[in-house]
Recover the amino acids of this structure.
């Protein structure tokens, strides 16, 4: 198979779509989020002037990705587990 750079764009898109379809739904959402990030970062023909992300935007996206799914995690500790309280 030729290197990706030498393959026609339609073949690359078909291959990408096939690979994404094989992923679980939550991983497909990660792919979509990453593509959205790239689109915002580098723009499309219509949005090239919006391609400069500030450090704040990048950090917010990183935090959002790191915290994904935590709301579904069980609570491990309660206030009863505290040994010291600060006011």
């Amino acid at each position: 198979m030729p290197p990706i750079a030498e393959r026609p764009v339609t073949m690359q898109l078909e291959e990408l779509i096939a690979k994404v379809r094989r992923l679980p739904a939550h991983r497909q959402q990660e792919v979509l989020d990453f593509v959205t990030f790239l689109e915002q970062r580098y723009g499309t023909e219509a949005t090239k002037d919006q391609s400069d992300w500030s450090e704040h935007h990048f950090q917010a996206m990183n935090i959002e990705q790191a915290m994904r799914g935590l709301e579904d995690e069980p609570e491990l500790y309660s206030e009863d587990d505290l040994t010291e309280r600060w006011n």
About this structure: Residues 79 and 87 are 14 Å apart (CA to CA). The chain has a mean pLDDT of 77.
